[in-house]
Amino acid sequence: MENENNTTSFHSFGVSSNTSVFSGKVIVFLIVVAFLGIATGFILPKNGSKAGVKNIGNLSGSSIPKGTTIGSDDLKTFKDTTEGVLKEGGIDGEGQYHLVRPGGDSQNVYMTSSIVDLSKFINRKIKVWGQTNSAQKAGWLMDVGRVEVL
C-alpha cells in the first residue's frame, strides 16, 4: 500500500536558519572592546611616564641637581655602565651623542636612547646604564636606559 499523503517528515535538530557569524551579541561585544581600547589609549599617557621610568619633565640640563637619577629601574636589561662627559654627535651615523672618557677618542661611547632625553645632559658628567648594541664604526654603541648626574 502506498502512502497517499506522500509527505516526508524530517526532524529538526535545533539548527537556526540564522547562520550569521555576527550575531547581535558579538557586534555589541566588539564595540565595547573597541571603546575600551580607545579609552585606554587616552588614559594611560595622561598618567605620566612609562612604568618604572623616572622623568625630569621640562628641566634644563644645568638645573638638574647632582645625584639625580633619571630613566628605567630595569637594571637587568640595562646592565652595562660607564661614565664620562656627554657630548653631541655620533660617528658615521651611529649614535646621536657620545660620552667622552679618559684615554682619547678610542674610549668614547656612542649612545642613543628612546627612554631618556640625553639632550638635557650635554656637557655634564654623567653615569649611564645601557645595553650594548653591535656597531659598524663605533667601538662601543649603547642604548641608554638610565642616567645619573655626577
Put the structure in a nutshell.
The chain has one helix at residues 24-46; strands at 53-54, 69-72, 80-88, 97-100, 109-112, 125-133, 141-149.
The coarse overall form would be: elongated
What is the CATH architecture term of the domain at 53-149?
Beta Barrel
SSE class: alpha+beta
CATH topology of the domain at 53-149: OB fold (Dihydrolipoamide Acetyltransferase, E2P)
The radius of gyration is 31 Å
Question: Based on DSSP secondary structure assignment, what is the total number of beta strands?
Answer: 7
CATH class category name of the domain at 53-149? Mainly Beta
Low-confidence stretches: none
* Helix proportion: 10-25%
Count of runs of 4 or more consecutive helical residues = 1
Distance between the termini: 107 Å
Strand order of the largest sheet: 3-4-5-7-6
Please name the defining characteristics of this protein.
alpha+beta; OB fold (Dihydrolipoamide Acetyltransferase, E2P); 1 helix; 5-stranded mixed barrel; 150 residues; elongated
Walk me through what this model shows.
This protein has 150 residues and is α+β, with helices and mostly antiparallel strands. It has a domain at 53-149: Beta Barrel (OB fold (Dihydrolipoamide Acetyltransferase, E2P)), CATH 2.40.50. It has one helix at 24-46, and strands at 53-54, 69-72, 80-88, 97-100, 109-112, 125-133, 141-149. A five-stranded mixed β-barrel has the order 3-4-5-7-6. The radius of gyration is 31 Å and the shape is elongated.
